[in-house]
Amino acid sequence: MGFLNATCELGNLNNIGSRDPDFKDIDKFLRLPLQIIEDETRSGRVIRVWLNVKDINEESLHVKGIEKIDSTDFIRNFDEEKIQQEKRKYIFREPTGSATPWKFSPIYKLGKGASDAKKELLGENGSWQEDRNSRFYKLHRSVLSDFETCKVFHIGSVDRIMEELERNIDRLGELWSDKKRSYLLVFGVNNNGNFFYPGQIPVFRSYFKSKLSGNLGGDVRVVCGLCNSNSEAGANLDKVFKFATFDKSSFLPGTRDGKGVSEKVFPICEDCLSSLSLGREILDRSFLDGRTLPGVKIYVVPELLISQENLGTASKETKDFIRTGLHTSERFFNILAKQENSLVYHFLFWEQNQSQERLHLMVEDVPPSRLKHLEKLWIDSYKTFLWNQAKEPDFDPNSTTLDKALKTIYYVFTSLSGKSDADKAIMKERMIGVTGQLLDNETINIKGIKKLMISRFPGLFSDPEWLKNGAYELRKMATVIDFIIKANRR
Questions:
Q1: How far is CA 339 from CA 2, 186, 271, 318, 323, in A?
Q2: Which of 227-241, 243-257, 366-380, 463-477 is predicted with the least confidence, judged by mean pLDDT?
């Protein structure tokens, strides 16, 4: 429960609150449609489609055409108030299913810039209506068509939009070209020469609220698994974390009778649902590490142990750390280790598989002192086996961080796997398990790891490519073994 409670508190701590009735019920469910990247050469871009409508306040917009198409920068700073403003502009949220034929707002993720935008948009044969892989087909089917079905757009408006997009294909290609950036295609309204984003248009806000109610809510009375309150319309935790399903006993206990599973997984009330939703958005934005272990995402949820404001500087600095987050720092664990023990961390290791999420491991209640201790042990092992060797003649402080330790363990384990995907997957699970044991201060089966390495030596020693750097690879193995032995001594 530590992970969930901390995520909920993180949402409550960062809830700015809203006096605006247009956003009061949806603020906590809003997401940024792109990742914030401070580097101006890699930050996202927004391609804006200015729709001409008869009346911006209509209940069903009569789209007369497209005034123009231009682009602008996506947000590049982490100021919370600015982020909140941006989220309200886009009123964005991903549907729970990848095949859902609608979106919460008229936004389409184009992704990285295209070398041949016309081909990407129109398809191989230039006829997007017949090419399911073309971007225009996906835009029409999964974004725009439902707005007309739900009468947000007047009948015929979507066809008119698609026709004008085709006529502006060269303009779209000109704006969607930088392969270093991610792009959004956003449909808004031309309001007397000003671009109004979806969140500024009443009918789009109403559409969002309608979809939110139908997508997240439930019609079963439940007792909230977090706050223990009664709720007339409960939802399940898998609305926030997709891996929180009834078969994931490693995360939450589920039912086995097969009856009413959807109501029994982990019911949560509306208030906890909104707090958890905002908490996850903050995790994704500021407390998610996707660089330390390739292919594996790591959530780290900080939980404050000193909650009273009058306890002085320690409490304030800890809360500032939680509010600020870690963004996308290369030295993720190094920063965590520098915090004071006025908080603990909950770690969750998971993997993104298209729209699905696969849970690997959860470790709760890890104090910063544990991370500091592991980092100290790594420095000792690193200096003994790798420092001043041929490949690392100079002392590199970046190699003495806990991030480097975990990366080294990862690469040592993957180097011992076979060439098949199944073997690599097994070795990845084993490596993640070792990482969890290190964080949780558990004893690791070092004999089993040694046997694994020895069993792979005949194959490695007969590989000419491996032998080119064999001595250095053996030193890395020795460093990992020494590090784990030291960690086992506590």
A1: 19, 40, 30, 8, 14
A2: 243-257
Indicate the burial class of 22 (C-beta count within 10 angstroms; 0-12, 13-18, 19 or more): middle
Longest dimension (CA), the chain: 76
242: closest CA among 291, 289, 276?
276
- As a whole number of angstroms, the distance between CA 340 and CA 278 comes to 25
Q: In this structure, are 345 and 270 located in the same domain?
A: no
> 324 and 448 share a domain?
yes
What's the CA gap between 223 and 220, in Å, rounded?
10
Q: How far apart are CA 433 and CA 444, in angstroms?
A: 9
The tally of CA atoms less than 13 A away on the side-chain side of residue 440 is: 16
- Judged against a pLDDT cut of 80, whether residue 15 lies above it is answered with no
Q: pLDDT per residue over 399-441, tens digit each?
A: 788 999 999 999 999 999 877 888 888 999 999 999 999 999 9
| Domain annotation covers residue 26 | no
pLDDT at 274: 84
pLDDT digits (tens, 9 = 90+) for 229-241: 887 767 788 888 8
The 3-state secondary structure of 263-280 reads: HHCCEECHHHHHHHHHHH
Per DSSP, the residues of 344-395 read EEEEEEEEEETTEEEEEEEEEEE-HHHHHHHHHHHHHHHHHHTTTBTTB-S-
Is there a contact between 265 and 1 (Cβ–Cβ < 8 Å)? Answer: no
| Residues facing 92 on adjacent strands | 31
Q: Report CA-CA distances (Å) from 143 to 33, 51, 147, 276.
A: 14, 15, 8, 26
Q: How far apart are CA 216 and CA 240, in angstroms?
A: 9
pLDDT digits (tens, 9 = 90+) for 376-402: 999 999 988 887 654 555 556 667 889
Confidence of residue 331 (pLDDT cuts 50, 70, 90): confident
Q: Work out how many domains the chain is built from and give that number.
A: 3
Residue 311 sits in the same domain as residue 381: yes
Question: What average pLDDT does this structure show over 42-49?
Answer: 96
Looking at the fold, whether 45 and 182 belong to one and the same domain comes out as yes
Task: Give the side-chain half-sphere CA count within 13 A for 220.
Answer: 15
From CA 108, how far away is CA 138, in angstroms rounded? 9
- Domain enclosing residue 473, as ranges: 287-490
Compute CA distances 321 → 278, 318, 406, whole Å: 17, 5, 23
pLDDT tens-digit series, residues 180-234: 999 999 999 999 999 999 999 999 999 999 998 877 655 567 788 888 888 776 7
Residue 145 sits in the same domain as residue 263: no
